[in-house]
Every structure is written in structure tokens, then in C-alpha cells.
Records
---
Amino acid sequence: NPTHEVYLTAAEASKIPRNLLSDLSASPSVAGAGSVSVATYQPNAVGLIASVHRPVLLMLADTYYPGWKAFDNGREVPLLRVNHTLRGVILEPGEHDILFVFKPSSLVLGAWLSLAAAGACLLCLIVKRKRSDRYKKPLSMQTP
């Protein structure tokens, strides 16, 4: 029953502080835990507003993929892989503005490499043009 239990690997469970892990285990039901609403939903960003009365695991029924990052009230928090394929975060009691952002390091690296390659091509064109200008001889208008 997904409203009472979730599957976490040992690696994912190790991201949860021990005191919160025991609190989560003690009260697995979602009844009366609080509320959550979707603020924004875009391909590369999901924003949620949550108000919880006790520690909870907020599970977003969206695919987990490396490159997603989670922020709670502007502070990066551990993103958990829940039930093998979904994303989740641990919330302590209180008000939360949660933002899931997709920004894989491969995308950033690819952008930097593309920029470097474009710069190298531009530099090659400039050097080639300067060399060709240097070897051009002006034509003389005089005849012998």
C-alpha cells in the first residue's frame, strides 16, 4: 500500500537522518500528515507548496533520473529515489516551498564544451584571415 510504505535502498535510506527515520517509521500513515499542492509544473521544474504536521516523506509521482535536484525553501536537500522510479524528499514539520529542478551535469558540461569549440573555431578563422592578409601583395598599377 503506497500510502503506508515505500521502498528505499540502503543507499537512499542513509540520506535520511536517523532521528527522522525512526519518526517516519513510527507513523507510516498519511492521514492527518498535512497538505500539498502543485504551484508549478514544467518539463524541467516542479514546484510544490506543503504544510506538514510531522516528519513525512513527500513522494512525487514523477520519474527519478540523475540530474534532478530538490530544494526546500531555497536550500538544497537530498533527493531520494523512492519505489525504484519516483522522486521524494523528507519534510520536517512546518511550511515548505519545494522545488524540483532538472539540471544534469552532462548538460552543463556539454554547454561548456560547445562554447569552447565555438571559441576555438572563431580563433582559427581569425588566425587564418590574418595569415592570408599578411601574404597578399598589393597590385602595382604601374607597368614597366
---
Amino acid sequence: MLQKVYLILYGAGHSSSLFLPQTKSVRKHPFLRQPLHFSSLCLPPDSNTPFISFPIGYDACGVTVGFFRASALFASTRSASSSTGIKPPALNPFTWDDLIDIVQKKGNPSLLSRSEAVTRSSKARTAYIREHWASSSDYILCKIFERERRLVVRYDVQGNDGAVLPKHYWEASPRLSELVSAGTVSTRLVPNDFPYYVDRGIDHHVLWKIGGEVSEDDVNCAVETLREGAPEDDLEGMKMEFMSLINPVHLRSVPEIDYAHILSRQCPKEA
């Protein structure tokens, strides 16, 4: 029995590739600004999940940047909205070469994960948000974008004895839909609270954006911000390398707000 899989491809790079499992073919597509829909793509139920990658690699002023946007994936047998974005922990830290292989060559962000300790912390944060906030996007608007919050009280929650109990939770003010309707566009670059399990010396930041998708220009500006923030003494005889990726919707902890992961490290300049 075949399962029907629906893929939506979003362009965010100079080239893109559609990788199908258990095949050797790779279909190339030019740079796309609008969604390209692949419908009625049938795969055996035991096949691996298909994915789409958008690798970009270039050197400028001693900087190497890898950037791609993976596909949003919708399958008839799977609900993307039910995912928590939390994957099983990694057993060993990822090296820079591992990251190049996963992000730029394979284009499969599902292979990246966190350490066991960080995974536990991430799950605890997710549980806290579900208990105390209207949504994960409300939490991010207040924590990352420093928006105001307001307390909401509901009276449709029943206790064990059937009595109606008040339910208190926080929501952002204004909320995401209001900001988008008003045409608000804003970005924030912050260290990742729950970084991937990477080698020592590799930093992990997150570039958040409301009011649109994270663009290549947004990533380049973030890269320059990180470069300018590095102490000059640390860069003597060294260069900084960067790599960025945007997870598909079913891997995101906050699917309503676009964000990019930016990985960076310092390494010796080539002679």
C-alpha cells in the first residue's frame, strides 16, 4: 500500500535539490521565491521520509556560509502540527565536518539533535510553555522580542468534582496575528538556549523573525553581527566560519515564527 505525501518547496537559495529515498536520482530546480507544489508523490510505507535541501556555499572575506531552507512536509499518515520539534538525544557531539555533511551535503536537519541533558531541559521548557502560555509563539514574542504580556483567565476547565475552575495563562500583547496584520517586521539574534550537541568551540545562535521568512540577507547581516562581536585578539591569525539552516515545519519548536539556526567557529587561516 502506498502513502500519498504532499511536499511544499520554498526557495531560499541559488539551487535546490529534491532527494527521494531509495533512489539515485536528484532533481534540480532553479531558485524559487514562491512555493512549488509536488502532489500525489507516492512512496512505499516503509520508505524513509523524503526531504528537500537548499545548499549554498560561498567564501567572502574569509567567511564560509552554508544556508538552506528545508521543505515543509505534510503526509496523509502524519500530522506536522502534532510534532514537538524535540528529537532523541545525540550520543556524541557533532564535529564541524559532521555539520558540513549533514547540512550542506545531505541537507537533512533531522539528523541533528541535542545532548541528553539539553534534551531534558528542552522538554521541561516545552511543558512549562504548554502549562502557562497560550502558545509557543506568545512565549517567544515576550522572551525574545520583549513584547508585553497579559494574563488571561478562562472558566471552562472542570475539576475532578465537576466544579468549574479558573485557568490562568499568559499571552503576548499584541499577539502574533496582530503584529503581522500591522506589517511589523523584526529580527532578533540570540544564543540558542538549547543548542545542538556540537564540539567545543562551535557556537549555536538562533535568528528569529516576525513578519516574514528569514532571508539570505537576514542571515548575512546576522553573520556580520557575530563577526563584529568577536574580540580582535581572538581573530588574530584566525578566521570565522559560519553555517546556517532553517528546519522544516515539522521539526520546529515554534512553527508560527520563522527562525534560522546559525553555527559558527574560529579556525586558523590557511597559509
---
Amino acid sequence: MQYAYPLLAIFIWAGNTVINKLAVGAIFPAEIGFYRWLLAGILFTPFMLKPVIAHWPQIRPNLGKIFILGVLGMAVYQSLAYFAATLTTATNMGIILSLMPLMSLAMAIVSLGQRLTAGALAGAVLSFAGVLVVVSSGSLGALLEHGVNLGDAMMLIATLAYAIYSTLLKKWQLRLPPLVLLYLQVLVAVVVLFPLFVASPKVGPTLQNIPLVLYACLLASMLAPLAWMQAVVRLGPSRTTLFFNLLPLITALIAAVVLNEQLAMYHLVGGVLT
């Protein structure tokens, strides 16, 4: 039963990558990014006001750090993913996203003094090679000649932003309940993304895009983080992180069924390596 928690989170996040792609043409990236966190904030608020007030003495001196975490982990990461979805495939996004644990490991070695093992080094080399295969569409010569697809580049930056977020989370060790910290970061995302939402063209809520917003809010923004937190408590951080390796495979399978995306040989090679 304890393995159900990380699997649930991974399936939801893989599905959310496909949701990013389904949102293209149905709603503008800045819209779904803002609506997602706004709705999550509204739903969380009745349950989180008392805990926030109770922990305010611990929150106040850490407001700057909480703001940085909210910008990196909620606003930048997910917003770039919505924009990336307009320019690349969900399969590519899932494979690139699987680099996150290794990016986090590299930053932990530099900033936290974590030791680099031979296994971690081998994993890093293989994962980097796998992503190179994917972003080059199996042709490194074409990559050198034309550069990285803009959508893939956005997804790489988004993944890097979340890796920095994860590293800072470990480094700062904020003494706050996980749900309180999540709620405060959601509020940061709402504030930061509001100007982009105002400046963006808008479709508005429709029967086509409302289910996408609800999935992104209720499942990807609320249920998945809660399931992941439970997984960390029950299995520990190291064992839980291993489930992240399933993300590209599950994303590719969902994308093949829902989006009819064709799996090329370079997807299979890149997915195995990462």
C-alpha cells in the first residue's frame, strides 16, 4: 500500500504533462498557469488560515526564502512547461523532466557537500546522453547545426528551476509543516503570475478548457504533492525519488494513447538512458 503513494503522484504528474499539451489551443499558457494556482489557493485557504496564523512566528523571518521557493517551484517551473508544450511533444517533455533528480544531485554535491558516488556519476552520464538523444531527435549532427528546439530548451530551463528549488528546500530546512509551506508557495505563484496573466491574451473559461484547469489544480497541484509527501514519510526521500524514473515511460504511454504521439526509436533510446 505504501508504494501506492509515489505511484499515484507519478501517474498524476505524467498525466499533467499530457494536459499541458492538450491545453495548446484551448487556453493560453499564462491563463492556465494563473487559474491553476488561484483555484488551488482558494480551495486551500479555509483549511490553512489557522495553521498559517499559528506558525506565523516561524514564517515571518523566512518570507524571502518562501518567496524564492514559490517563484522557482510553482511559477517558473510550471509556466515554462505550459509554454514549452506549444513547441515540443509531451514525450520529449517527460524524458527531459526525468533529468530533475540528477540535476538536484549535482547541485547537492556543489552546495550541500554531498559525496559523488561512482553509481551516481554513471547515472548522470547516461541520463545526460539520453536527453541529448531526445533533444537532437537522434541526430547529434543536426543538434550541432540547428541547436536545441525552443520547446525542449524551455523544458530544460523549467527542470533546472525545479532542481534548484529542491536543493534550496533541503539546504534551508524550513521548520514548517509541509502543507503550510505548500500553501504559502501557491500564494506566491498567484501573486507572481498575475501580471503575466493580465498582459496575456485570454480565451476565458470554456467547456473545453475547464477540465484541464481542474486537473492541473485538483490533481497536479493538490493531490499529487500530498501523495508525494506521504511517500517521503513512509518510504524515505531516497526510495521515493527512484519512482521518478518511471515518469518518462508513463508520460510516453499516456501521450501515445491520448495524443496519438508516435514513439520514435530515439525516444526509446533516450528514455532507457535517462
---
Amino acid sequence: MGWVWFYASLLMTFVGASLYSAFVQTHASEILKVVAGSVTLLTALGQALAKANLKFYLLWQRIWIMLHGSETAIWRFGLRVDGDLGSNVLEDFAQSAKSSLEQWHPEIHSCSDSSLRMKVDRTIHLHAQLEHAAFSEDGVSHFLVRSDELEVPYASARAKIEQCIVPLLGIIARQWPGAEHSTMFEVSFRKKNPFFAFFVAHLDPKQVTQFNLVFHPAAITRDGTDRVVVTQNSLHIDAGTTESFAQLSKAFILMSSEIASVTNL
């Protein structure tokens, strides 16, 4: 908080002195100096507060998101199911998708013994693959559902997570209630991760590995398996449940309040 008090004191001193000078001489140049100097110091003060106070930073970033709502990022998500899945996994999944996902009017584009391609809506296309227990190294069947790339603007990111991706993954996971499942979420930013600098400012050097910031959000995960990797240009989330997927994706994409418990900041 030292830099915050420094910039705050400097700002009050500058504004006070400049206002006195402006009111005494009433010159336009003096008023302009007040405005320019105040904006500069306010910006520096805001940056210092953002580094020192998480709540202020979250407010600052929500404003940034509102002002940049049209900017887009490339998303990919997926779900993996492990266990005894039955003998007709892909056929069962295709039939279940038509009934369970009817609100999105899914279309099956192709289906074979080992893979399936499906269009859920205009933006979400899924590719499902099955590895039979007889051919897997651990003797367990693995069913992997991954999305193709989809372009999502910040303005609709929360709705996409809450109203589409999380319900979709939940429906798929509930088809095999006795099996283990995990989720994956990747985000590639067009330019750079706008929140990367904040994470760097609040980490110990040991948490930075080859320019990758690795988080293990114990506050959300029961068994400690969830992991978030943040880089300068991307974001990758591995979550054990759809609930933790929802919390982590909103925390790291939309700077929601959950970020405080996730990162232990």
C-alpha cells in the first residue's frame, strides 16, 4: 500500500497547488495543466490501487470488459468420461443428445464405431471419440467430447458459460452417473491476456514456471486436481466437475468475485 499513499499524497498536493494557481490567475493554460496533471496522477494512483487491492482491480477490470465488449477470444472446451460406459456408447450418446439437447436442435453429422461429429447450435460443434477398454492402457473405457474453436466476444462470455456450455457439459456428464469425469477449457486471446500482468504482480517467483502461471484452486476443488494455467496469450482450465468448471471459467475470464478464493489473493 506504500505506493498508493505516495500517489494519493502527490495527487492531493498537485491538485491543491494547481487549483490555487488557476483560480488566482484564471488562465486557460493553468486550467489545462490542472486537468492534464490530475489525469496522469489519477491513472498512476489507479494502477497502484489495482496492484494493492483486489476489489479495486476487479472493479477496474469490469469497466474494461464493458468498454471492450466487442473484443473476441477463441474458446475450446471438452469433457472426458472414464469407466464402464456400456457397449454402444456413441449410439447412446447420439440418441441422448437428440432428446436431452432438443432446446439447441442438435444435428448428427457423422457417426462411426469410434467417433461422432455433432452440431449443437450455430457456434458449437462437438467431436466425440471413444477409446474402448480393450485398447486402452489402463483397461478402462474413455469417452472424450471436445468442441471445435468458437469465437466469443466479452459481452456475451458470461451468458455463453452459464446458459450454454455448463448446461451442455452437465447433460453429457449425467448420462453416465457412475463414471468419473473431468472438464477442460482453453482460451486463446487475440492479442494478449488482459489480466496476465495482475496475476504476475500477485504471485511468488516459485509459482511462475517457464512464463506459465499455474494455479491449484484448493478453495473450490475437493481433491486438489483442478488446475489453471495462465500465459501471456492464453488460458487453460482442467476441472473435475462441471460446478468447478463454471466457477473457474467465470473467475478467470470475467474477473468474478470467485477469483479471490481461487487464487488465495
